[in-house]
Write a structure and sequence with these properties.
Layout lengths: L17 E6 L4 E6 L8 E6 L1 H12 L5 E6 L5 E10 L9 H27 L6 E13 L2 E3 L12 E12 H13 L3 E7 H10 L8 E6 L4 E7 L2 E8 L3 H12 L3 H12 L5 H27 L10 E5 L6 H9 L13 E4 L9 H8 L7
Parallel strand pairs: 1-4, 4-9, 10-13, 13-14
Antiparallel strand pairs: 1-2, 2-3, 5-8, 6-7, 6-8, 10-11, 11-12
Helix pairs in contact: 5-6, 5-7, 7-8
Amino acid sequence: MFNPLNLLRKAPEKPESFIALDFGTTSTKAFIFSLDEKVQLRGQGQGTPKEAVEQAVTQAGVKPQQAVVGIGGQNAWCLTTTVRFNRPEPEKKIEAAEIKKLNEQVFKTALMQATPQMSQFLGDLGLTLQLIDSEVLYYKLDGKVYPPTNSPRGEIGRVLESSIFTAYSPTTYLEQLSLTLKELDLNLWAVCSLMAILTKALANNNPLDFNAIILDVGGRVTDVAVVFGGGIWGSRPLPLGGETFTLALTKHLGTDREEAEKKKIAFANHQLRDEEVLRIKEGIKPAVELWSSGVESALSDFEGIKTFPRRLILTGGGAHLEELKEGLATYPLMRTLPFTSPPLVEVRTDVGPWNMKLVARDILSGEDNAT
C-alpha cells in the first residue's frame, strides 16, 4: 500500500502505538491501538475531533503521536485502472524499470478518469486531486496472471498488463486535514481509503474469492463500492445516510432531531414497545424507499460492468437498521441492473474504521507494491 503523504510525516519508522481517525460526516471516531499483539492497548472515542481523541486517550491511558487517517464519503474517489502494453521486443526479458513505467502510466490514466468524475459530483470544475491510496491488484503477461508480490520481472512475452486500485482526495480537503491534525497535536503517519480497509477486512485473507457490493452507511453519506476479486472496481458516495432516516422521523413524529435520533437508535436496538415500533416503521418507510432507489442509481453509474456481484454487504452505523436490509432485499434491483440472480443482502457490523490497523501493519511489513 502506497501513500504519497507518508513522505511528509516526521515519525519514527516503527511507532509503538497509533491513533486511527475517521472524520465522518456527522462525527469523528478515534481508535488507539498497538500492532504488538502482546500489548493490550485499546481506546476509542466519538464526537468532535477533540472529544474523540480525548475519550480514546482517557481509555487507553496513552496518547500516540502518530495518526492513521481514513478518508471516505465525498472526500475519497476509488477506482481500479488497467493498462495493457504491447512490448516492441517480446523476446527481451522484462526489467523493473519497464514495470515501473507501466505502473506510472496506470496512475496517469487513473487520475485522468477520477478528476472529471469527482469534479462533476462535487460541482467544482477547478478541483485538483491527490493520490491517497493505491495497491497493485495483479500483473498479466500474455494472459498469465502474476500476484502483486511476484511481478513478471525476468520473464519474456508480448502483452504486459498492470491493474492498480487507486483512491484520490481533493487537495483542499487534505490541506484542511493537515490543519486539524496540527490542532490535535498529532503527526500524520499514513492516510488511507476507508473503503479499501473495509474491503480488506471483509475479504478475510481471501481477496481473489471476494466479489461483492459494499454499502457503508454513514451519517450523511452511503459509500457504494463494487468489488471483484478483492479489488475495488470503483466507488460512489451516495448523499443519503443515517441522517435521512432521522429527518424522516422528525417530520413523522412531529418532534425535534435529538428525540428522533433517540427513537431511531432505540428502534434499531429493539428497545421500543410494539405500538412504537409500528409507528417508527411507518415513519422511515419513505426514507428507506428513497435510499434503496439511490443505491440503484449509484450502481447504474458504474460503466463497463457486465454482471454485478450477487452479494450485497451492508455495513457502517446505519446498517443496524434492519429495515435497510429488508428494503434492499425486496427492491427490484434486477429491473434495471445486470444481476444474473436475485441479490443476497447481509449485514456486517464487525468491521469498521478500527480495522485501520491493517494499514499500519502493511506499511511496516513493506507491502508498498504500487511503486
